[in-house]
Amino acid sequence: MIYLDNAATTMRKPQEVVDAVVAAMGSLGNAGRGASAGALDAGRMVLRCREAMAHLLGCPRADHVCFSANSTCALNAAISGLVGPGDRVVTTVLEHNSVLRPLARLADERGAEVAYAGCDAHGFLDMDDLERLATPGTRLVAVTHGSNVTGNLVDVARVAELAHAVGALVVVDASQTAGAVPLDMASMGLDVVCFTGHKGLMSPQGTGGMAVAEGVEPRPWAEGGSGVHSFDRRHPLGWPTRMEAGTLNAHGLAGLLAAVRCIEEGGGPAAVGAREHELAQRLYEGVAGVSGVTVYGGWPVAPGRCGSIVALNVDGLDSAEVADALASGWGIACRAGAHCAPLMHRALGTERRGAVRLSCGWFNTEEEVDTAAAAIRAIASE
Predict the structure, then answer these.
(1) Beta partners for 116?
(2) Which residues does residue 65 pair with via DSSP β-bridges, in sequence order?
(3) Homologous superfamily of 2-10+268-381 in CATH?
(4) Where is the Aminotransferase class V domain (predicted)?
(5) Please, where in the chain does CATH 3.40.640.10 lie?
(6) Contacts of 249 (CB under 8 A, 6+ apart)
(7) 170: which strand partners?
(8) Residue 345 pLDDT more than 90?
(9) Does residue 125 register a pLDDT over 90?
């Protein structure tokens, strides 16, 4: 199988990640729950993972890296923990439902006011529109770092500058970019960065979390066991406990730690992203200009602002038909449909048939993307 669905999850993991998870399954206890050797080993490993993620994301305090099951949980926790009744929130049409749906719930249940900044014809965020909507008194700006439909990147440092000018906080959805695009919270002025482990970070599913700048204080989203202050009526507010109710996925986090070390040893996110971008650009060039093929996103106008995704459609076919043909005829795994990003598809005019998303990863090869390009050309010609 040629696996080009890395924007959904990286199926191929470094062997070091597999080995770390297997070792953890037979050796780690429950971090923060007791003083046995297994519990202490788990606690030390989790601390090392916090430190590794803090370094990777440029978060000044490792204890402000809080783990969760994925970025969806982290985004729910960050958004719900920072937005109060009647608050104004600005987001964008690029967003995944992991941002859109928590905001819709807050609008319904807390009377939050939500405004949506648009994009241009190529799916790039309209920064002027964002600035117009981010009025004084805005509580929060929630924005993706990279579209999961087109791969287009967002200048989150510029977003933070605009948001802070009106007193707003910034929550960044780094689901598509963490591990593959450099992020530095401190220098970029980012208040919260939410990440998932199973995509660009090449670690197990069930890992993710948020990194929070000092001075930003989201309310706990979930409450329960913490391992400390058991007689407190409400969940403790100390870091990182305030955002980590219940047992952590220590086995998965052992894999995340191993993955971050592999990324750093491979040259860091910049090197990983450059390799993946090179493959995606090769794929784009293999289908660009083909009669009957429409490519979405910034590749035709600003390839340097694209990630590792090539999204397209073939005239006369639903996206699911193209994906099925790729799978059955060439053994190519990709993703078709709406990709949990309804506003992006409406903006691109692909609401009815979705789009075929081919997403490159660290373990893909030039031969694989060439085969995918040839397959798209063949489907279009037929």
Answers:
(1) 91
(2) 211
(3) Aspartate Aminotransferase, domain 1 (3.90.1150.10)
(4) 2-370
(5) 15-265
(6) 67, 69, 204, 206, 207
(7) 141
(8) yes
(9) yes
Q: How many CB atoms lie within 10 A of CB 324?
A: 13
Residue of 66, 334, 340, 360 marked active site: 340
Whether 229 has a pLDDT exceeding 90, the answer reads no
Residues 6+ apart with CB under 8 A from 45: 24, 28, 31, 250, 253, 254, 257
- State how far the alpha carbon of 149 is from the alpha carbons of 7, 23, 191, 254, 338, in Å: 9, 36, 25, 30, 8
Residue 34 has pLDDT above 90, yes or no: no
pLDDT reported for residue 32 = 85
Establish whether 340 is a catalytic residue.
yes
Angle at alpha carbon of residue 53, lines to 308 and 167, rounded to 5°: 85
Which structure tokens are listed for 173?
A: 């959805």
Q: What is the Cα 133 distance to its own chain's centre?
A: 24
Fold of 15-265: Aspartate Aminotransferase; domain 2 (3.40.640)
Q: Which long-range contacts (CB under 8 A, 24 or more apart) does 25-31 make?
A: 25/251, 28/250, 28/251, 28/254, 30/247, 30/250, 31/227, 31/247, 31/248, 31/250
Q: What angle do CA 27, 175, 97 make, to 5 degrees?
A: 120
Q: What distance in Å separates the CA atoms of residue 195 and residue 70, rounded to the nearest whole number?
A: 7
Distance CA 11, CA 20 (A): 16
For residue 226, give both structure tokens.
């913490």
Retrieve residue 145's tokens.
């770092």
Torsion of CA 52, 55, 58, 60, to 10 degrees: 90
Helix axes 319-330, 366-381, angle to 10 degrees: 120
Q: Which amino acid is at 53?
A: M
